[in-house]
Amino acid sequence: xxxxxxxxxxxxxxxxxxxxxxxxxxxxxxxxxxxxxxxxxxxxxxxxxxxxxxxxxxxxxxxxxxxxxxxxxxxxxxxxxxxxxxxxxxxxxxxxxxxxxxxxxxxxxxxxxxxxxxxxxxxxxxxxxxxxxxxxxxxxxxxxxxxxxxxxxxxxxxxxxxxxxxxxxxxxxxxxxxxxxxxxxxxxxxxxxxxxxxxxxxxxxxxxxxxxxxxxxxxxxxxxxxxxxxxxxxxxxxxxxxxxxxxxxxxxxxxxxxxxxxxx
Length: 264
Ligand SMILES: Nc1ncnc2c1ncn2[C@@H]1O[C@H](COP(=O)(O)OP(=O)(O)OP(=O)(O)O)[C@@H](O)[C@H]1O
Ligand SMILES: [Mg+2]
Prior knowledge:
The protein is built from eight helices and ten strands. The chain is an alpha/beta fold. It has a single domain (5-252), classed as P-loop containing nucleotide triphosphate hydrolases (Rossmann fold, 3-Layer(aba) Sandwich). A hairpin with a 2-residue loop joins β4 (62-67) and β5 (70-71). The longest helix has 17 residues, at 177-193. It starts with a strand and ends in a 23-residue tail after the last helix. 42% of the residues are buried. Adenosine-5'-triphosphate binds at residues 14, 16, 21, 23, 41, 43-49. Belongs to the ABC transporter superfamily. InterPro entries: AAA+_ATPase (IPR003593), ABC_transporter-like_ATP-bd (IPR003439), ABC_transporter-like_CS (IPR017871), MacB-like_ATP-bd (IPR017911), P-loop_NTPase (IPR027417). This is ABC transporter, ATP-binding protein. GO terms for molecular function: ATP binding; ATP hydrolysis activity; transmembrane transporter activity.
C-alpha cells in the first residue's frame, strides 16, 4: 500500500541574522494510512519543524512532501489552504482558538468552511465537546476556560470535521494525566475505526510507546522509524489505560457521527 504521507529529502534551513540553522536535513519518511505515528526527540531536534512541513504550514527549503498523491510542497498558498480545510486537522500547543467565539463556535468552524448548515454544525460541535467532557463550557469564551479546557476545545475542533489526517504538536502538554489518557484513547479509536492517520509530537514516553509507529528525530534527521508489533503496543496500551473506565480494548466498538459534507 502506498503511504498516505511521504517526504523526499526534506530540508529546512532557517536564517537567523547571519547564521543558518539547519532544522531538517534530508528527511525521508513514510507514514501509512490509519497509522498512529508519534514523533519523539530532544528539544530543538526538529520535531515541530517536521510536523509543520508535513501539515503544509511551512514551506520546505528543499525536498518534497506528499499527502496521498498530492505534492503539497508544490501547492500555492491558496491551494494549500483549500487542501488543509478539506483533508487535514491540526492541534496546536498554543490552542489557536478565536478569542471572540465561544467554545462551540470555535469547534464548529471547520464545518463552516465545508459548507455544513448551522444547526448541524452546532449539533456536531456540542457532540465533540461532550466527548471531551466539556459540554458545560460550550458557551464559554476561551478566556473563561483553563489551559487544559482550551486545549480540549482545540482537539474537539480538529476532530469535528473528520479529517483524514490529524497533526498534533504536544497536544497533551497542558493536560493532567487522566485527561491526556482520555484524549489519546479517543485518538487511537479514531485511527482504528475511521482510519484517521495521526502524527503526534510528544515528550511523554508512556504515550509514544502506544503508537503504531515511533519516529525519532535527532539533529534534524530521522534517527529511526519503527513500527511496533501488535503485542507490544497492546501491552503498553493496557498498562496506560488500566485505571480508566470503559472498554480498554482499542479494537472495541466505537461510533462517530459524520456529516455527509465532511465525508470524502
Ligand atoms: N522560525 C525559526 N527561526 C529560526 N530558527 C528556528 C525557527 N524555528 C525553529 N528553529 C530552530 O530549528 C531547530 C528545530 O526547532 P523545532 O522547533 O523544530 O524543535 P523541536 O524538536 O520541536 O523542539 P521542542 O521539543 O523544544 O519543541 C531549533 O534549533 C530551533 O532553534
Ligand atoms: Mg516543538
